[in-house]
Specification:
Layout (H helix, E strand, L loop, with lengths): L4 H18 L4 H9 L8 H25 L2 H26 L2 H4 L3 H31 L4
Helix pairs in contact: 1-3, 1-6, 3-6, 4-6
């Protein structure tokens, strides 16, 4: 969907890294994954499928907004998506700052923080592209 190969490669590398981090909690984290039935991150392939699905749906939404709406409307949509990504990051940060989740291991915590950061970067990139397009064509 993206035309820039380096952007696509960066998304793939970040997705694989995030899936690896999420699928490797310490012993306490593994017990938590088992107790709370987080089967979608239990193994690396499942975590990778989950991360790729989230990033893929987000990328699909951004492309639909880019193609189906005028640039000024797209600015609103991307702004809302960016705020949603920031809110998700704030939620993850507050959740993993608690004592219980703090014991799950640094790699798992970094993986939990990385997914919202990826989404913020994706939505921010599309917001900047829409802003530049709206600035070039103010009559749209």
């Amino acid at each position: 969907m993206t035309k820039n190969l380096s952007t696509t490669l960066l998304l793939v590398i970040l997705a694989v890294t995030d899936a690896y981090l999420l699928s490797h909690p310490n012993l306490i984290g593994r017990i938590g994954v088992f107790i709370y039935k987080h089967d979608y991150i239990k193994t690396f392939p499942r975590a990778l499928a989950t991360v790729v699905l989230v990033i893929g749906v987000s990328l699909f939404l951004c492309e639909v907004v880019r193609r189906a709406t005028p640039p000024r409307t797209a600015l609103t949509w991307y702004s809302l998506l960016l705020v949603l990504g920031i809110a998700l990051f704030a939620y993850v940060y507050l959740t993993f700052s608690s004592f219980t989740y703090g014991l799950t291991g640094k790699s798992f915590i970094y993986g939990a923080h990385l997914l919202p950061i990826i989404l913020i970067g994706l939505f921010g990139r599309y917001l900047i592209l829409a802003f530049n397009q709206a600035r070039k064509n103010p009559d749209l």
